[in-house]
Amino acid sequence: MELKYTSKINKIRTFALSLVFIGIIIMYLGLYFKASFTVMTIFMLIGFLATLSSAAVYIWIGMLSTKAVQVECPNCQKVTKVLGRVDACMFCKQPLTMDPSLDGVEFDDKYNRRNQKEQ
Ligand SMILES: [Zn+2]
């Protein structure tokens, strides 16, 4: 099975985690510019902000998780969270839909985008 689809919550979580690493890398790079206090401070500040924003993203995931619908995945029988009209299982990446009219329709993120415009 193609692992093309990732659960939205997992995607955001990966994004938050990479922000932490990017922040640490930027702060680490700043150490190479010890000669210039200004440049080092800018690097440290950007790195710190990246790390800080990852914390904000984690809070956002927490809020999204409370809005997500818990369903039992028909494929792996684990309880997963569905965000929006279509999402993928967090464990086996099985495409899932909350909309019966989309049942059996090939998974496409555009259904979510259309949904967002309606709101
Ligand atoms: Zn599953």
Task: Describe the structure in your own words.
A hairpin with a 6-residue loop joins strand 3 and strand 4 (95-97). It contains 3 helices and 4 strands. The strands form 2 sheets. It has a two-stranded antiparallel ribbon with strand order 1-2. It has a two-stranded antiparallel ribbon with strand order 3-4. The model has no long low-confidence stretch (mean pLDDT 85). With 119 residues, the chain is mainly alpha-helical. The protein has 2 domains: 1-67; 69-119, no CATH class. The protein is elongated, with a radius of gyration of 19 Å. The longest helix is centred in the middle third of the chain and has 31 residues, at 37-67. Bound molecules: zinc ion. Zinc ion binds at residues 73, 75-76, 78, 80, 89, 91-92, 94. Zinc ion is lined by residues 73, 75-76, 78, 80, 89, 91-92, 94.
Principal-axis shape equals: elongated
Number of strands: 4
Structure annotation, total helices: 3
Helix content class: 40-55%
SSE ordering = HHEEEEH
Question: What hetero molecules are in the model?
Answer: zinc ion
Average pLDDT rating: 85
